[in-house]
Every structure is written in structure tokens, then in C-alpha cells.
Write a structure and sequence with these properties.
This protein is α+β, with helices and mostly antiparallel strands. The chain has six helices and 26 strands. It starts with 15 loop residues before the first strand and ends with a helix.
Length: 420
Amino acid sequence: MKSRYRVYWKVNLASIFFIVLSFVSVTLAWFAYSGLSNLSTEMGVKAWNIELNKNGEQLSSDMVISLTEIYPGMETITEIVNIRNLGDSDAQIKYSIVSARILDNPDDNFVVNETTTIKSEYVEDVLSHNYPFHININLSKKYLLAKGDEASFEVSISWPLDSESDEIDSLWGNAAYQFQKEEEEKKKEDENYQIRPAIQIVLVLTAEQYVKTDTASDPNYNLGDMILFDVENNQRCEEVSTTCLETYVIDVDNVMSNEVVSLLPNPNKPYYNDNEVYNGYYDEYQTIFEGVTSDWNVETRALTVEDILRIISRDIINSVLVRESISDRIIGNLNYENRIVTELERATNKNGYYRFVNENFNYLSSIGCYWTSSEYDDINAFAVKQISETYSKLYDEKKDSICNVIPVILANKADLENTQ
């Protein structure tokens, strides 16, 4: 077993700058009719006021995150900026990467051009997964309702002590040292030269008027929202019963064009009928699933490991991959192409599991285990259970273990809205 306490030189990677530019509001004719009087029309201009706040202090439109050094085994560095809409117009918020430079190798210098293959989503994936250090970005939601709604913009920077390759750690440590040395030499030759940070990432965070387009987030169905749903009448209900279930939205970003919303019933409760007897083995998954849903009058599907992993990976600070003899690693961004497939392979190839904080995903936490429909390997399947008051895990449970089966409900949004 490799020691987790090996000593590394704390190579100085100079400063890491994350520059958030152009937090802008679109100012094009945002007018609302306030009323009609005879033949005249009175119009008022809606106030637009988006506030950035960090640690209780209001920020300007530019934000710089500066670190003097990063190194293997460092404590995860996090920056959280709260965004609040104090105006009286709903806002849509988004971010994108403009450019990223890692040291001075052209292969690690990215300039985003949406007309080419270098896109913001690709660069974000690279920063999250392709280096021994990991830079992750997350926006808690993509809209802000008027008059006080809030969201958070988060950045985390980590470098596990053991990143699976001593050679790669040494390579990057030496490269960082050489880059810093060359920058200092340039400064000696020209006192006006501005020493560049070893890593520089430029972001744009924008706010604009919220418009209900097909791709806009649906404010009625946020990840983790609780909905009481009657599985017999296929509609909302008001009091929990055998058919009125406590369910939670598990769509990471349900948008306006989505006709259905995915709901996960409370995983702490069994959903078998009194006359049904099951062992709860994984091999009985389909039989149990069909037995549970036989009297339900709503479309359903099986819960998958991808469902859980996409949700918990949104916590870019605390949700980690745990493997023996290797440092815990923040899961990070899984949105780009087939990244979620390679991430799961990273876990299964090393007998790993995923740990997440109960408080952040209480609708996933369960004292007893419950199955996903996804196999881990020949003798195990992915399951979820609470492991302490603080943490739960997505892990490999032996197929002959007894766990609950929780169907995912695919509720029609039109039916839900007609019963509100």
C-alpha cells in the first residue's frame, strides 16, 4: 500500500486567476404595461438590480480568485459568490469560459471559439478531469426570480495527495517550477514585464431577462423540490397516504420544453403491497419493480446509477470518489459527452464508491440500502445508503443483499399544473 503521507515539494504555481468579466444586464427596452387609461398608455421601466456578494461583502462586476500556490495534498480551495436579484424582473443567469491557460504549453492553452471544436463545455471538462489538479465550477441554478431570489456561483480547486500517478505529479511539479523560473528571468530582463500566473482562466458570468424559451429552466421543478403525488389518480395530492407519495424532483435541470418531470419517492419507505413478499435481492429487481408499480396509474422507469451520480456531482466541494490507497477525488463536472461513463469506470476499476453529504441531498439519503438498476460488476450492483449522520454513499452492494426498490415516476407536467 502506497503511503498517503509522502512528502512533496510545495511547488509554487504562482497565482491562479479566475476573472469573472462582464456581469451584464441586457438593457434593451424592458418595459411592462402598468395599466390603460382612456386612450393613453402608462408604461413603467422595470428595475434591474443583480447583486454579487462574497462573505458578506458586495463585489464589483470583476472577480479575481488569487492563490499563491497549489500542490499535491493541498486542502480544497473554494470560492462561493452569492447572486441575488433585487430587481422586479426575473433573470436568467449563465456562465461560460472565455479562455484557459495552463503554464505555457500550446496544448494547454485554450481559447473558446463557439464556431470551432474549442467550446466552453469542453474546456470546463478538461479543467475538471485532465490534470492532476482539478478546477470545478458550478452554478446552483440558472434563473433568479424577481425581488430577492438567490443562487450561488462556486469554484473549487483541489489536488489530491495521490493522483494515481507519481510520474504525472512530478512532471507537473517540475513544469510549474520551470515556468515560474522563466517568468522571473523575464522580469529581471524587463522591469516592466508583468509576471504571468501559472494558471489563468477567464470566465464570463451573465444575467439577462428571463424568457420562457424551450431551453430555459422551469422554475416550477427545481432539483430536490418536494411534490406530493397520487400514483393512482396521476395528480398532485395534499396528504401522504398509501397512494399519495412524498416525491422529489431528480431532474438536474428540467427545462420548459420537457413535458414530464422525474420524481423519486422517499427512499426511506417501502412501496410493496401488504400481500407481496420479496427477498429484496438484486436479481429480483424487475419482479419487485413490476409488483410495486402494478397498481400505479402513471408512467415509471427504473432508477439508474447515472441518475444519482449526476445529482451528487453538483456538489463540487464535498461529493468525492473514494478508493483504497488513493486520495479521495472530487467527482466534478460530468456534463460533457461521455464523461459520466469514464467516471464510473474510474470507480469500478479500483473498487471505489461515491460519498456525498446527507444535508445537501436529503432526498437521496436512506437509513436502509436501495438498489439502482445498474450493475457494478458480476457479483455487485450499485446501491445507495446512509453511512453516518453526515454522509451517504453510492456503492457496490452484493447482489444477494436485501435492499429496497424505488421506481422513478415520470409525471406529466400538464397534469401536475392542472391540479395546483
